[in-house]
Specification:
Layout (H helix, E strand, L loop, with lengths): L31 H4 L2 E4 L7 E10 L2 E8 L4 H6 L3 H14 L51 E8 L5 H16 L8 E7 L2 E6 L16 H20 L2 E2 L8 E3 L8 E3 L6 E2 L18 H4 L7 H16 L14 H8 L7 H5 L4 H10 L10 H30 L13 H4 L2 H6 L5 H12 L2 H13 L8 H8 L9 H7 L1 H7 L3 H11 L9 H8 L8 H11 L6 E2 L1 H8 L5 H11 L7 E2 H9 L1
Parallel strand pairs: 1-5
Antiparallel strand pairs: 2-3, 3-4, 4-6, 5-6, 7-10, 8-9, 11-12
Helix pairs in contact: 5-7, 5-11, 7-10, 10-11, 14-19, 14-20, 15-20, 15-21, 21-24
Length: about 600
């Protein structure tokens, strides 16, 4: 069952009088990378998804947890030749009798493939790269058990300004590609509703964990928050509404990573241009924003500083709610960036490094505040190393003077700090499997690269193991992308032992940089290593096919490739891709040929 092609002529067009040529969501006006979050016009999301539970409602819509329907388009495709899928699964199981799960090195893999590049989702090797057993509730031929977040917005009561803000949020989300920013998968639009299908973060927001916030946890949370912001700010995008509710934990685990969400107020602000539109939340808003003065991306730094203050002390440095706007003393302290630290800070033994971080964030003059790069560098080279040293000293002290182990007082665990990029980067080691995977990706044709990138986009990021940490560790300058100098630095030790020259690394980098942008994005990195990490599973391959078969015909056609490539389209590229994938020389790529391509 696919999406209908009917058009409602009574639909109010918020994008202008003209048709999709004026529509900022239209795939044809964007590059391949930006079209990956699928825009499906005249399609109701319920044709593809079932609502599991509504988790929030407002005047303009609701937020739900959803899953793909059993009889959605991709399941129909998967049922066309079930015997071929079963055969491939059996072949893979026969070829894989065990797994190698050495995670002592960040670059290590749990490679579960031998001969075939496609991994079964039901075999004994279904583990993440760090050896942890993966759970996959997908049935072989039924609907997926994977859950998504769905944001439903009713546009009929929106003002033009509100609609512009919402379209701006979608446009910005389609551009983002970072481990600490929530991912947008699909956009549906029909009648007077728009649905956003996004990554589901199950771990609650920052406020839900505030009672368990040691300084170590705060430092790691701020490191991850700043990593996301640094990526945004490098593209001149300002979040403009950082608050507890807009920073989510990706799952319920104790060491879960955080993700930035809700970009409805985000804005593109050039380095030479300021904005003066008032927006944000009262307790984290920067003075220049609330007072209606021109502001830049530095207002995010103020908001992050306030969040750090609240997380460390459970106190508010300036304003807490709208009532405080009438308090002249609080307003004066806010405008002049004057705050005090109560006895709580002494009682909790909060370090001078935490106080220094806050002091540099909460500067009245935006130009005197940290940049995201400066803040992240301070967290990684000063604050976190100090906390680790403090932990080691405390542990040593406890060892020297404590009673028998069964009676010892608990020591602050170091595991939280060990999850920081700062410490993982120090232990970065790249092995031969990773190098081989990056070289192999560079040698693939354009179509297979496109398929792997699409697979990397659509797959469930919970199955990545340590790949996210590996990417961030190689990103030595915290840009959210990899540059040639990052790759050379990461491979420095490996190159000296394996006769890998600078020219070899440069060639490898060019192969990874599929869009010739001069940088390797997160999704390109995941695509390059997907095969050795066992991520090319039947479910992931099916999802990638579904994305490329954008008219749900059961085949990938020339028109499909034109639609997906967007502004990257050219006739010569399309012909090369069809020649590469069309194993039967029929002019189209069916699912059987698609699967065979991914085997080799």
């Amino acid at each position: 069952m696919g999406c209908s092609n009917s058009k409602n002529t009574d639909e109010l067009d918020h994008f202008g009088a003209q048709e999709d040529s004026e529509n900022p969501l239209d795939n044809t006006v964007h590059t391949f990378r930006k079209t990956l979050p699928w825009y499906r016009k005249d399609c109701h999301f319920s044709e593809i998804y079932d609502v599991v539970r509504v988790i929030g409602q407002g005047s303009m819509g609701e937020v739900s947890i959803v899953r793909k329907r059993v009889n959605s388009s991709i399941d129909t495709i998967k049922k066309k030749k079930p015997e071929s899928l079963e055969l491939l699964n059996r072949q893979h199981i026969q070829r894989t009798s065990g797994c190698s799960n050495d995670a002592s090195t960040i670059g290590s893999t749990s490679s579960c493939s031998s001969g075939s590049s496609i991994s079964s989702t039901t075999d004994a090797c279904n583990k993440t790269a760090d050896g942890v057993k993966k759970t996959d509730s997908s049935s072989p031929l039924g609907g997926s058990g994977r859950l998504y977040a769905c944001k439903t917005v009713m546009t009929n009561n929106m003002t033009d300004a509100e609609m512009d803000e919402f379209i701006n949020e979608i446009d910005i989300l389609r551009e983002f590609d970072h481990p600490n920013i929530v991912q947008l998968f699909e956009v549906y639009r029909k009648d007077r509703k728009i649905w956003l299908i996004m990554e589901l973060c199950k771990g609650g927001d920052l406020e839900s964990r505030i009672s368990n916030m040691s300084e170590e946890r705060v430092a790691v949370a701020m490191e991850q928050m700043m990593a996301g912001l640094a990526y945004m700010h490098s593209g001149n995008v300002c979040h403009s509404d950082l608050k507890m509710e807009n920073i989510m934990y990706e799952d319920t685990s104790d060491d879960a990573a955080i993700k930035l969400i809700d970009f409805g107020l985000s804005q593109r602000i050039s380095k030479d241009q300021a904005n003066n539109r008032a927006c944000g939340t009262i307790y984290t808003v920067a003075p220049e924003v609330l007072m209606g003065h021109p502001y830049t991306v530095q207002n995010d730094i103020w908001s992050a500083g306030v969040l750090a203050f609240v997380l460390l002390s459970e106190e508010y440095p300036f304003l807490k709610n709208m009532k405080d706007l009438a308090d002249e003393k609080k307003m004066a302290n806010f405008v002049y960036a004057r705050y005090t630290m109560s006895d709580t800070w002494k009682e909790r033994k909060i370090s001078s490094f935490a106080k220094d971080y806050i002091a540099k964030s909460l500067q009245r003059d935006p130009g005197s505040r940290w940049t995201t790069k400066e803040a992240l560098d301070f967290i990684q080279t000063k604050w976190i190393p100090y906390l680790m040293k403090r932990h080691d000293n405390m542990y040593t002290s406890e060892e020297n003077r404590s009673p028998p182990s069964s009676e010892r007082a608990p020591v602050i665990p170091s595991t939280i700090l060990e999850n920081s990029t700062a410490l993982k980067r120090k232990h970065l080691r790249v092995n031969s499997n990773l190098v081989a995977a990056m070289k192999q990706f560079g040698e693939y044709g354009r179509f297979k690269k496109m398929v792997l990138i699409t697979l990397a986009h659509t797959m469930d990021k919970r199955s990545l193991g340590n790949l996210k940490e590996l990417f961030l560790s190689i990103d030595s300058e915290n840009t959210g992308t990899l540059h040639l100098r990052d790759l050379k630095l990461a491979l420095q030790e490996y190159a000296s032992k394996h006769d890998l020259t600078d020219d070899d690394i440069a060639s490898m980098f060019v192969g990874l940089d599929s869009d010739q942008s001069g940088k390797v994005r997160y999704i390109e990195f995941l695509a390059a290593v997907a095969e050795i990490y066992g991520l090319v599973t039947m479910d992931n391959v099916a999802d990638a096919f579904d994305r490329l078969d954008c008219d749900n015909s059961g085949f990938i056609t020339k028109e499909n490739l034109i639609s997906v490539l967007g502004t990257d389209y050219c006739d010569d590229l399309i012909l090369k891709m069809l020649k590469e994938g069309d194993l039967g020389k029929t002019g189209i790529i069916d699912y059987s040929a698609f699967v065979k391509l991914m085997q080799y």
